[in-house]
Amino acid sequence: xxxxxxxxxxxxxxxxxxxxxxxxxxxxxxxxxxxxxxxxxxxxxxxxxxxxxxxxxxxxxxxxxxxxxxxxxxxxxxxxxxxxxxxxxxxxxxxxxxxxxxxxxx
Amino acid sequence: xxxxxxxxxxxxxxxxxxxxxxxxxxxxxxxxxxxxxxxxxxxxxxxxxxxxxxxxxxxxxxxxxxxxxxxxxxxxxxxxxxxxxxxxxxxxxxxxxxxxxxxxxxxxxxxxxxxxxxxxxxxxxxxxxxxxxxxxxxxxxxxxxxxxxxxxxxxxxxxxxxxxxxxxxxxxxxxxxxxxxxxxxxxxxxxxxxxxxxx
Amino acid sequence: xxxxxxxxxxxxxxxxxxxxxxxxxxxxxxxxxxxxxxxxxxxxxxxxxxxxxxxxxxxxxxxxxxxxxxxxxxxxxxxxxxxxxxxxxxxxxxxxxxxxxxxxxxxxxxxxxxxxxxxxxxxxxxxxxxxxxxxxxxxxxxxxxxxxxxxxxxxxxxxxxxxxxxxxxxxxxxxxxxxxxxxxxxxxxxxxxxxxxxxxxxxxxxxxxxxxxxxxxxxxxxxxxxxxxxxxxxxxxxxxxxxxxxxxxxxxxxxxxxxxxxxxxxxxxxxxxxxxxxxxxxxxxxxxxxxxxxxxxxxxxxxxxxxxxxxxxxxxxxxxxxxxxxxxxxxxxxxxxxxxxxxxxxxxxxxxxxxxxxxxxxxxxxxxxxxxxxxxxxxxxxxxxxxxxxxxxxxxxxxxxxxxxxxxxxxxxxxxxxxxxxxxxxxxxxxxxxxxxxxxxxxxxxxxxxxxxxxxxxxxxxxxxxxxxxxxxxxxxxxxxxxxxxxxxxxxxxxxxxxxxxxxxxxxxxxxxxxxxxxxxxxxxxxxxxxxxxxxxxxxxxxxxxxxxxxxxxxxxxxxxxxxxxxxxxxxxxxxxxxxxxxxxxxxxxxxxxxxxxxxxxxxxxxxxxxx
Lengths: 106, 199, 612
Description:
Chain A has helices at about 20-40, 50-70, 80-100. Chain A is mainly alpha-helical. Chain A starts with 20 loop residues before the first helix and ends in a 5-residue tail after the last helix. By secondary structure, chain B is mostly helical. Chain B has six helices and no strands. The radius of gyration of chain B is 19 Å and the shape is elongated. Chain B starts with 10 loop residues before the first helix and ends in a 7-residue tail after the last helix. Chain C folds into two domains: about 1-30 and about 560-610, no CATH class; about 30-545, Cytochrome c oxidase-like, subunit I domain (Cytochrome C Oxidase, Chain A, Up-down Bundle). Chain C is about 65% helix and about 0% strand. In chain C, strands 1-2 form a two-stranded antiparallel sheet. In chain C, strand 1 and strand 2 form a beta hairpin. The radius of gyration of chain C is 25 Å and the shape is globular. The interface between A and B is large, with 58 and 68 residues.
């Protein structure tokens, strides 16, 4: 087994599904819409602390569609998902715990 | 002589995903520092004094569109449409540079107009460190894309057969975009929201 | 070999090295085995310098109220001793084994990214030199290996010592990250056919878990160090109490890294012991799946215990209780491993060679360190123990009796494979017994003086405290430890070129590295093995004694080629690092060099093999 990366397969395996360019455009429109919503609710003072879950849902939604579609995670090997999610989940858990230690959420 | 890997996945692509998992911890530490210090120290200038949400919304929009542009660039490369690939790659670089331009504009407004420097207070320190680090990541991305663009234009070595190089750069680019999605929500929108009850 | 030039502007041509020799061979090598030797020798020399720092500390403490070492120097000594032993000793010694052994254990010809591998060594060397240079360039860091703010800030630490510490650690971090990314991809993606994850040798498993911990933990300390550097160099406010900052944030960020770091230090040694005990008991490891599960649990739980290093900082009873619970919990999987190691030896046909002695030494010493660890885990009792020699005792039992003994065990175990020769068994046993007895005499009494309240990191103590006897005792015993290490060095020098020829499989081993010649040929395996079980080599041996004829022509084997660029990128990084300490213009130059050399690295052509 050669460790020489230049000889490695340099092209993606076309056998698994690929989104059409139209899908990418739809994702872009969704990103615009979600961002617009985020900015819209920003001006709703009456939401109070309620803005936190709203912003969370909207930004997580944007995050997810970029990762799943643009970064192709939905269509690629699950190993990539596990690897990325491990880092992401650990990061979120540790930071939330650290914030709690500084008086957040309590 | 085979180039098979145990999982069938390319080494460098696996490396990039592992690296991005690691980079999550990096940005989480900076965002965590920002949030922990939020509200501490000298209050002014604070987020409400300096942030211009409409302007930042525009730069956010630009960065998001650069991800779309990036994805088109890759899709055209895979289909061997080198001309279209180059155009979309260039447009990604332009949008990325525009975003950096907005950042520089924003920083200089804050610095010269609002007298917010990293030394002023905790907000200045944590804000500039977090968004500055993100900006450096974007800059590295633009340079990386520029090198690929140069390779394509002057050495003609970028083809559908070598699309992995662009794939890796694209993954990095999108990651920088999703970090900004978090920063925009957590630092800008959450930071300036006036609806919180006085406590 | 047809050499393809790398074309630069103005028609300048750079050629990739072709079969370099001598110094150029070592400078441009991407062979994991050579890189392993480079790591091992460099790290061992660093280990010795850390030992000298320790001897100076112990000499100063041999009697009360001594002034052999000034307090300012003493602070630098304990800081550098710990920093050296952790980052320049244990970690790169483990890396030496990762490099040499992992591809052999998984049936691969090299790692996934050979040039990245070379790069990680040169950057490690750079980090080591930066760290050690501080002694000669204005003073070493003096605020402990954990560098708590605000004493590391510009106000209380205006010299360059802390800057060396920050830059040194960042550079070392780059080396560790590069290596870990490499090993994760290698272990996941370059295993021989049939080698599923649950057929991996345990040393490889521990390496995988260590690398995963590393790539997730180092970014946190990277951020903490960046924040500290920004404070020191540009007056940022991250740890500036006048601006409202909370220096405890440093402690949190540091220990979120620091606790996984200690598992990074110990898991490789546990892996080594998990190879040695089955081999020398002539029995498979007891409970292979439980060992994997326990190690994974340790790696996972390691993220949830960090504030047990901060019990005395006033976190409050809820936080203290939560972290007590999680810390108590993490002792459980280690206990499982202990029982499994004992179960491996139980009923085995045990051969007490030097590796076995060190491995059993590891078990007993790590157990003692673990027991004192459980005492610290309970926040209430930790109030008495924190910052006393009781903790110093714990640290040295787990890191010297644990990690270092495990590493020494590995050195003796794999010495025949690496050098092709046997070490001197008598000297080996002498080395073990002197080190084992002396290390207990040095560190066990620290439990006593610690309980009596002797504080850490203070350069002397009053005669009235009643600690004089044990301190003198510990110092003399420490000299005996040094003597033991000397025996080891003599053994290594004597045996490296002059030992008896070892043959492929001197221990009747179980794992794939023993199925190839000692030292291994450049291509490792003539035929890539096909693996059917754990300890596949052992089972193959039981089935037949006859060696299967190889079907592969050596000339058909394609290997990665040497390269200048890893070394040159490391040079750029070093210049950039010095720039942060002295003058940012240098940093700009360093970054410029890195940009050029990284591009050259990516565009480097592959030389064509000879067509015949």
